[in-house]
Amino acid sequence: MKKLLYIIMVVVGAMVVLSACTTPEPEVIEREVVVTQEVEVIKEVEVEVPVEVEVAAEGPMEIAVIVKTGNSSFWQNVQTGAFDAEAELQGTTPELSVTFLGAQSESNINEQISIVESAINRGVKAIVLAPSDVSALVPVVEKANEAGITVVVIDSALDAPDEDYVSFLATDNDAAGRACAQRLIEEVEAKTGSTSGKIAIMSYVAGVGSEVGRVGGFTDYIENNSDLEIVTTQYSNSDMPTALDQTTNVLAANPDLVGIFGANEPTAIGMARAISQAGLSGEIVAIGFDGNSVLQDFVRDGTLQAIAVQSSYNMGYLGVKTAYEAAIAGETVEHFVDTGFVIVDEGNIDSTEAQNVLY
User: Fold this and answer.
1) What confidence tier does 58 reach under pLDDT thresholds 50, 70, 90?
2) Three-state secondary-structure class, residue 59
3) Sheet of 126-129: strands edge to edge?
4) Whole-angstrom Cα distance, residue 158 to residue 165?
5) Domain assignment of residue 32, yes or no
6) What are the residues facing 309 on neighbouring strands?
7) Helix, strand, or coil here: 221?
8) Same domain, yes or no, for 295 and 273?
9) CA pair distance 208, 204, nearest whole angstrom
């Protein structure tokens, strides 16, 4: 009996030991599978996050062209050049967009500043700016530079450090003003036999970079190369009706005026209309600036003896291309580009050279 009981106890013990050795193995395998799946999911999430951040950081592919105003043929021709450059560059960069904005008038400097700030806030790639004031736009251009936005200045100089903008594209306004003065002196001498007498300057917005250079060059040349007396300088704020009224008053107050200079498109148009209305076409030497169809007609009928015509198209076209090269293509660009001017008169108005810049 004792021997039988001993055998039974040995068998039961062996079964317990065997059960203890075999049962835990499937539980360990199941835990390993679960842990492996969790690790794989975490790795997938970690791979996706950097890709999303990189795409978001790319931002819009916009070049904002911001001019003094859209309310003249000159700036509309700048717009034509800018959009032609956009169409050309989209062949390489389809996502590129060019926007074009300007204030209601050239004298509304605060509005232009707000337009620039809006472009900065939406994170444009570059700004092509025709500043309405030589100093008032400096802080907002510095702000754009700090935000990593490339700035190209066109038409008018900006009193900012060179590092705040990559390029300046404009007419050499000092040279253009001097050329207008030289032509006026020649025309006065041809008509009166003298380089003396009274003249007037009909300007546009005081303090604008282009005005400072253009009228400054004109004044300096007159003073150093003739005995002509500048009796008044008027500012129309680039408003044609204002220029017309101002010129009418100047002509009435100075019946012995021998010459007059209209320093930009709307001012020159108002000046020429006042001369025509006063019956003085061909009687007084008149030199204008810019070259839309109205000014061309005044050249043809003899109201204006000549006009200095800038390449406004080139300012828009080359401005956008320069901004693209610097901001998107990563190329080094020229810091100053002279877009040129042509003195147009009745003798060359139909020439290829003149027709390339008239608009």
Assistant:
1) low
2) coil
3) 97-103, 62-69, 126-129, 150-154, 167-170, 336-338
4) 9
5) no
6) 342
7) helix
8) yes
9) 9
At 60 the pLDDT is 77
Amino acid present at 355: Q
Give me the mean pLDDT over the 57-66 stretch: 81
pTM of the model: 0.81
Q: Name the residue range of residue 217's domain.
A: 173-309
User: Does 302 lie in the same domain as 236?
Assistant: yes
For the chain, the domain total comes to 2
In this structure, the answer to whether residues 163 and 210 fall within a common structural domain is: no
Looking at the fold, whether 191 and 291 belong to one and the same domain comes out as: yes
Q: How far apart are CA 310 and CA 236, in angstroms?
A: 20
CA distances from 278 to 144, 255, 282 (A): 49, 11, 11
Same domain, 149 and 178: no
What residue spans of the chain are helical by DSSP H?
2-22, 25-56, 73-89, 109-121, 138-146, 173-192, 209-225, 240-253, 265-277, 293-300, 312-327, 352-355
In a domain, 52, yes or no: no
In a domain, 345, yes or no: no
Contact 281, 303 (CB under 8 A): yes
Taking only the tens place, the pLDDT of each residue in 204-243 is: 999 999 999 999 999 999 999 999 999 999 999 999 999 9
- Give whole-number Cα distances, 25 to 14, 29, 32, 64, 344, in Å: 18, 7, 11, 70, 99
What angle in degrees, to the nearest 10, is found between the helix axes of 265-277 and 293-300?
A: 40
Judge whether 287 lies within some domain: yes
Cα dihedral sign, 83-85-87-90: negative
* 282 and 222 share one domain: yes
- The mean pLDDT value for 146-153 works out to 98
Kind of pairing, strands 336-338 and 167-170?
A: parallel
Radius of gyration over every alpha carbon of the chain, rounded to an integer in angstroms: 37
Asked if 192 and 295 sit in the same domain, the reply is yes
